[in-house]
Amino acid sequence: MQRLSQPVEKRDFSLLRSWLQSSKKVIPLRKHSFLFQEGMPANELYLILSGKVQVSKICPDGKEMCFRICGSGEIVGELTLFTNDARYLLTAKVIEPGEAAVMKKNELEDQLLINPTLTLEYMRWMSKHARRTQTKFRDLMMNGKKGALYSTLIRLCNSYGVSLGDGSIFIDLTLRNQDLANFCGTTRESVNRMLNALKQEGIISMRRGKITVHDLNYLKTEIQCEDCPPDICCIE
């Protein structure tokens, strides 16, 4: 079996990640705990060393909208730099235990002001992050609930997919239907119906909370996929 996600992505922005990793403060990530919650004062950034963190927003009606799942090497809390009285815009919840390096926001701001190489790398990283976010909103707005689910499955394949050798892709991440609904901005009942339809057509199969996609091209064709690079079309 061969993992589809690209190892090059983890080597990108190595200077920024190395600087964050140099922090002397490392904290444990305990499952179901929060790195931060929406509205809290934003004084720190986090580099995930191990484990997984889900970044989401709680809507006024109580629904949770999940934006990304961050694993090893990913940075969380970055949207608060150079902002007076900064508050976290999103909520970061631990879904798989591990560790994170912690850096004070003002320390990174000071470094960006004096280190042009680090500043350029940070700008490149933010640009890629913005492109990822824009493509997710495009899929949600233009393709409806079905398109949102199909694009989420495609992104999961790019981020956590393992090729089984017969054209099928095993998504090596345990997901509840409610988790998928949070990514799609819809209800669990709607996701249940759409997943059952895909299973009946042989497009996917599910076992113990993990999904295998048997016909990725079907999903891409249904949403007129633009074949964005995997490092943009991803769930991270």
From TrEMBL:
Gene encoding the protein: fnr_2
Organism: Geobacillus subterraneus
Pfam family, one: cNMP_binding
Transmembrane segments: none
SUPFAM superfamilies assigned to the protein according to its UniProt record, in alphabetical order: cAMP-binding domain-like, Winged helix' DNA-binding domain
InterPro entries: cNMP-bd_dom, cNMP-bd_dom_sf, Env_Response_Regulators, HTH_CRP, RmlC-like_jellyroll, WH-like_DNA-bd_sf, WH_DNA-bd_sf
Protein name: Crp/Fnr family transcriptional regulator
Gene3D superfamilies tied to this protein: Jelly Rolls, Winged helix-like DNA-binding domain superfamily/Winged helix DNA-binding domain
Keyword set includes Repressor: no
Any single Gene Ontology cellular-component annotation: cytosol
Regions annotated as coiled coil: none
GO molecular function, one term: DNA-binding transcription factor activity
Keywords attached to this entry: Activator, DNA-binding, Transcription, Transcription regulation
All copies of domain HTH crp-type, residue ranges: 143-217
Alphabetized SMART domains for the sequence: cNMP, HTH_CRP
CDD domains per record: CAP_ED, HTH_CRP
Cyclic nucleotide-binding domain segment(s): 33-87
